[in-house]
Write a structure and sequence with these properties.
Blueprint: E1 3-5, E2 12-14, E3 16-19, H1 29-41, E4 46-48, H2 64-73, E5 82-87, H3 108-122, E6 127-132, H4 142-153, E7 157-163, H5 167-180, E8 185-189, H6 203-210, E9 213-214, H7 239-246, H8 248-257, H9 260-276, H10 280-289, E10 297-299, H11 307-311, H12 320-332
Parallel strand pairs: 3-4, 3-10, 4-5, 5-6, 6-7, 7-8, 8-9
Antiparallel strand pairs: 1-2
């Protein structure tokens, strides 16, 4: 498996990262350990979690994913693992965190409290990559960036990144770091897939020029690109099947991922995959990795049986005719996720 640098940092990671957001809900601990073991044995050394996991966020379970991962981490050489986790953004915006009684904010108090709690749950003395889970554009970046820098100086985290951030927010954070002479975001973790290419509109250019790496999540479009929602199907136990039943924000998210445009484009992508002799999941994973601004693609599974098609994308380079066919679908069905 290829290893790539995170931003301009000294840290290199496998170009596939195993995400853990379903560990503790959709995947129980026994299955989570199987997935983690098999991923590590296949050459994945980069793992991503968050204080707000598992999903959907629930105060009853917040932090459970980190606890599960921490127990697995004890069975491995800590130096062999690149561990990423996140501090929740403000709870007055688009999502209310399940952490700290839903009173989270991006300030020194919350950042330091979140790191200490994550270190305890993960049962480790440092975090390799620490990320802000979502931004707060209504406040200055100086406060939490200074807190993050202090934690780097204290040896509790190695490098920092952001997630669900805009071009404006990324550049504001980089400006603050440059002006204050402190650590900067080396990575950005945003949604990016064949079904959602909005990152290429502006953020890709910022990442190229500033040396910031994208570590995309949902490269399979939340599972939509596997084809399991095609034809109006709502598979039992599938995340968006459950979200549609939950209503509210979860249902709104499900409708963004699962709609006529996303399933129509998926049908076309599946035909391209079949012509190329690979599974749709393999195509989607390989496509995500094949971008110069991407360091590592975050995948997620709820069962070990889903791993082989993902791992088949390791070291795979898609031919230009396959890339051109994918681009043609993009042009035909613009912005299927809105």
């Amino acid at each position: 498996m290829e290893n790539r640098r995170l931003g301009r940092s000294p840290i290199f990671v496998s170009d596939i990262c195993m995400g853990t957001m379903t560990f503790g809900t959709h995947a129980d601990e026994e299955m989570a350990i199987k997935v983690l073991d098999q991923s590590f044995e296949a050459g994945i050394n980069f793992f991503d979690t968050a204080e707000n996991y598992p999903v959907p966020p629930d105060p009853k379970y917040a932090g459970l994913t980190e606890e599960i991962f921490g127990r697995w981490l004890k069975t491995k050489d800590r130096d062999a693992i690149i561990l990423a986790t996140k501090v929740s953004g403000p709870s007055h915006g688009w999502i209310k965190s399940a952490a700290r009684a839903g009173m989270t904010a991006l300030d020194r108090h919350n950042v330091i409290k979140a790191v200490e709690d994550s270190l305890r749950r993960l049962d480790t003395d440092y975090i390799d990559l620490y990320q802000t889970h979502w931004p707060d554009h209504g406040t200055a970046y100086d406060d939490h960036m200074l807190a993050l820098d202090d934690l780097i100086q204290a040896g509790k985290i190695r490098i920092i990144g952001c997630s669900n951030e805009t071009t404006y927010g990324l550049m504001k954070s980089l400006e603050a770091s440059s002006r204050l002479g402190i650590a900067r975001h080396e990575t950005i973790q945003n949604n990016f897939s064949m079904a959602n290419r909005r990152f290429e509109d502006e953020l890709a250019a910022a990442c190229r020029h500033e040396g910031v790496s994208l570590i995309p999540y949902s490269p399979l479009g939340g599972g939509v690109l596997s084809g399991k929602y095609n034809g109006g199907a709502r598979p039992e136990g599938a995340r968006f099947s459950n979200y549609l039943e939950l209503g509210g924000r979860q249902a709104a998210m499900a409708k963004r991922f699962v709609n006529d445009k996303t399933t129509s484009s998926t049908e076309k992508f599946m035909a391209i995959a079949a012509e190329a002799g690979m599974a749709p999941v393999t195509l989607a994973t390989a496509w995500s990795k094949q971008h110069d601004f991407v360091a590592s693609t975050i995948v997620g599974v709820t069962h070990e049986d889903q791993l082989p098609d993902i791992l088949a994308a390791a070291d795979m380079k898609l031919d230009q005719d396959v890339l051109d066919a994918i681009d043609a679908v993009t042009k035909d069905i613009l912005y299927p996720m809105g």
